[in-house]
Amino acid sequence: MRLELREITKRFGDFTANDAIDLVVEPGTVHALLGENGAGKSTLMNVLFGLYDADGGEILLDGERRVFTGPGDAMAAGIGMVHQHFMLVPVFTVAENVMLGHEQVRGPAKLLDLDAARAKVTEISDRFGFHVDPDALVEDLSVGAQQRVEIIKALSRDAKVLILDEPTAVLTPQETDELLEIVGQLRDSGTAVVLITHKLREVQAIADTITVIRRGTVVGTAEPTATQEELASMMVGRDVSMTVDKDPADPGEPMLEISNLTVIDPATQLTVLDSVSLEVRRGEILAVAGVQGNGQTELAEAILGLAEITSGDVSLDGEPLAGRSIRENLDAGIGFVPEDRTEDGVVAAFTIANNLILDLYDREPYSKRGAIDPSAVADHADEQVERFDVRTTSSQALTGSLSGGNQQKVVLARELARDLKLLIASQPTRGLDVGSIEFVHKRIIEERDKGVAVIIVSSELDEVYALADRIAVMYHGRIVDIVSPDTDRDTMGLMMAGAHGDQEEAA
Ligand code: ADP
Ligand code: MG
After folding, report:
1. Who's near 167: CB < 8 A, 6+ residues apart?
2. What would you measure as the largest C-alpha separation in the chain, in angstroms?
3. Which residue from 59, 65, 292, 373 lies 20 to 30 Å from 259 (Cα-Cα)?
């Protein structure tokens, strides 16, 4: 089925998220919709899927104008969507979840029975080699398998147009390859696939056609032969260098030493960190790689004191951190960029200026004799906003009004403004556009070159490779291995799935 979107416009209040977007997707092709975070990709697809009412424009399927008042309409017309956040019910089986989709569409009177759903799952799973058991509980499946269930669900409705919204964000490199293979099979069977992503590598690997959107408008189309630099500069509207220049590390004394660190989650009694030992020296970047949820977050939090240590030792510059408060740890020279910036990174109800001095407000030059000096705070804020290219109307705007990427820049600006011994940055560029990623990476390398010990936690392998001097791979709360950044992607992917790599410790 041929999909055509004509001049789709969608506004949220005064904000135009989609501005007269045109898009044509031919059957049997993979059309990549590429754009930085917040460009309007999900919004466009939500319009197509009947989740949002467009303010203008039309949707045509095989040349015929269609109006969808809800996802049910869209699905009935042959459109399937796998959302950025899966919508499965964890305590239901695969077949039950697939059935659930039909129920919503057809109403209780025409429920598919469970046997039919099971048979359907088996048929689709066999056809594409998905290896999904219809009777498995969704909560027992890997993230990759859950995603295949979402695809099965869409295909069980005979989707002729399949939308995949950032499908690889949660996958290991191997799972990503498997998914791209599946996408290729779907294309070959005649499906029109819309693949939404900001990952240039994937676009190059699978796309037949590429549409780039920036700030709600189509800025152009590109051939799959386009280079990453070309695609990136279309995405951000200026030249972008994709490789960060970085001299080999010149590590000094150990700054952070961790031995046999174990953390048991008090709520669940699960061992989230299992006897982790590592050291980070001055002037080096240790990247902690792994699929999200394998203890990386807990490791970062335990060092700062946000997670309670069950056993083991952590010391900074030779001093044990046990028994210190978070404030004392920050004062001792730890910079911390949390994974969840809206939860832990910024105070949304404070101005940008005040967020930038969150842990410095009672010091000179921001405070003098106990009173805050507003002009010193404002000057500092204006300087940092400029330096970190925080997109805002004013440094006095509320931080909550910023987009996620810009909030992240505020956190980074604040943490990097202090004199650090250790920088811990979790997912430092999540939600940032490629241009900002380049900038943040440069700043992190500058910290390293000043002699700061740096730990980066990242589930993006590209980021790990761009920054790491050494890589610690985590799986199920343990360090699988610590390897050099020369380790290839396949080996990394296997380690991220728990397989041991080369046992030699990287120099
Ligand atoms: P993408 O998927 O390309 O990352 P989105 O389509 O999710 O981007 O968002 C595009 C822009 O629209 C963003 O600035 C976002 O903040 C805004 N936006 C998205 N959904 C809503 C909504 N329901 N209400 C208000 N603004 C929204
Ligand atoms: Mg999106």
Report:
1. 82, 147, 179, 195, 196, 197
2. 76
3. 292
Q: Is the CB of 401 under 6 A from ligand 1?
A: no
197 CB under 6 A from ligand 1? no
The alpha carbon of 42 and the centre of ligand 2 are apart by a number of angstroms equal to 4
pLDDT band at 284 (very low <50, low <70, confident <90, very high): very high
DSSP 442-486: HHHHHHHHTT-EEEEEES-HHHHHHH-SEEEEEETTEEEEEE-TT
Arithmetic mean of pLDDT, 369-383: 91
CA of 348 to the centre of ligand 1 (A): 18
For the domain with range 3-236, which CATH number is right: 3.40.50.11900, 3.30.360.10, 3.30.450.20, 3.40.50.300? 3.40.50.300
pLDDT in tens, 469-501: 999 999 999 999 999 999 998 899 889 988 875
pLDDT at position 393 over 90: no
Residues 250, 207: Cα–Cα separation, whole Å: 41
**Do the first three CATH levels of 3-236 and 254-333+419-496 match, i.e. the same topology?**
yes
Two tokens, residue 100: 């659930």
Section 321-330 average pLDDT: 91
% pLDDT > 70, the chain: 96
**195 strand-pairing partners:** 32, 164
Higher pLDDT, 378 or 401: 378
Cα separation of 490 and 265, whole Å?
Answer: 32
CATH of domain 254-333+419-496: 3.40.50.300
